[in-house]
Amino acid sequence: MRLPGLIDVHVHMREPGGEHKEDWASGTAAALAGGFTAVLAMPNTRPPVVDEESFVQARAAARARARCDHAQYVGATSDNASALAPLAEQAAGLKIYLDPSYGPLRVDRLGPLHQHFAAWPGGRPIAVHAEGAAVATAVGLAAATGRPLHLCHVSRREEIALVRAAKERGLPVTCEVTPHNLFLSERDARAIGRGLCEVRPPLATPADCAALWDNLDVIDCFATDHAPHTYAEKTGAQPPPGFPGLETALPLLLNAVREGRLGLEDLVARLHHNPRRIFGLPLPPDTFVDVDLAAAVELGSEPLQTRAGWTPFAGLKVRGRVRRVVVRGREAFRDGEILALPGSGRDLRDAAASRG
Ligand code: NCD
Ligand code: ZN
Ligand code: ZN
Ligand code: ZN
User: How far is CA 127 from the centre of its chain?
Assistant: First the structure.
């Protein structure tokens, strides 16, 4: 079965400042092994991507080492709204953390939030980490300013209900859901292990999980929120939140297709068509993924490309395997082997990328 090149609109590459967790070469190897040919990278690196200098450096690192296509988000602080607006054309989008998560970025006061929504040019999404009532804050800002809002990792029943209501009102709101929120709940936390199960937003209830499945029609994207931290860090005294996800997402979702919980075209819409439309991404020629829907996989039983080296889905048996990934006519992955070299990916915001 052949799928178009899949796009993950929410990944953390950890370069600079966290290369022991992941860098562009290892993270994009994980992307290709998982069937993704493009990734949009979050700005919560060390230092974070919050001005022109850090943005230029982040893009240079990606150009030098990425093995698949890429684009870089810029991150909001309480005083950088006017500095970010000129970078919008070259950015994947603007990222605002309304709630605390991993890294220093957070904007929770209304004044700076409104400034960001007002200053950011209309053509690129504003992606937000917002939990609970903060989702309503973000939706209100999108309604008041007309800016396109993209809600990251929606995980709870009340949140997806509000997304539905906002869409029914015609507001410029889109959202993504992670595989871990579709396939894991707080009931799995004990089996995953203390520390390892830490993630923001936290694993929700089985009822929340069911609500996501019941509202698939308002979920625009599946995004991994690939948030690599090492096993030692996750099992240490101060476990950082986050799960690696690039190499497990497609097998899990293909298994859901086989089980009849999801249509294949629903999957392709949320991993390819909708990401392209929402983020205005070009379609690289001759770029595709060959998958085997019948092949059995035990997640975590084979070596992973991510430097995180572990998965919260370890031991889960599914069917659905990535066989071969071709990017712009070149074989990038085949049967477990990464063939694409660091630096072979393109920045999708470069003008040349849209010409193929
Ligand atoms: C993410 C990380 O580690 O960068 N962690 C997480 O638990 N999701 C940050 C984020 O996406 O909120
Ligand atoms: Zn987040
Ligand atoms: Zn994230
Ligand atoms: Zn299609």
Answer: 11
pTM attached to this predicted model: 0.98
Does residue 297 line the site of ligand 1, with CB under 6 A?
Answer: no
Q: Where are the domains of the chain?
A: 2-354
Q: Could you tell me the distance, in angstroms and rounded to a whole number, from the CA of residue 244 to the centre of ligand 2? A: 13
Measured in angstroms, how far is the CA atom of residue 227 from the centroid of ligand 1?
A: 5
Instruction: Write out pLDDT tens, residues 171-217.
Output: 999 999 999 999 999 999 999 999 999 999 999 999 999 999 999 99
pLDDT of residue 352: 67
For ligand 3, the distance from its centroid to the CA atom of residue 199, given in whole angstroms, is 9
For 2-354, CATH number out of 3.30.470.10, 3.20.20.140, 3.40.50.2000, 3.40.50.150 equals 3.20.20.140
Probe residue for ligand 1, chosen from 11, 13, 44, 129 as the CB with the greatest number of ligand atoms within 8 Å: 44
**Ligand 1 atom nearest residue 10's Cα:** 11
Please report the pLDDT score of residue 355 as a whole number.
57
The CA-based dihedral angle spanning residues 200, 201, 205, 211, taken in that order and rounded to the nearest 10 degrees? -140
Q: Give the closest residue to 9 by CA, choosing from 173, 231, 246.
A: 246
Q: CB-based contacts of 265: which residues, under 8 Å, 6+ apart?
A: none
Pocket of ligand 1 contains residue 74 by CB under 6 Å? no
Task: For the chain, give the percent of residues with pLDDT over 90.
Answer: 98
The confidence band for 164, taking pLDDT boundaries of 50, 70 and 90, is very high
Burial class (CB in 10 A: 0-12, 13-18, 19+), 46: exposed
Give yes or no for residue 21 CB within 6 A of ligand 1: no
Distances in Å between the Cα of 56 and the Cα atoms of 23, 63, 151, 266 are 16, 11, 26, 36
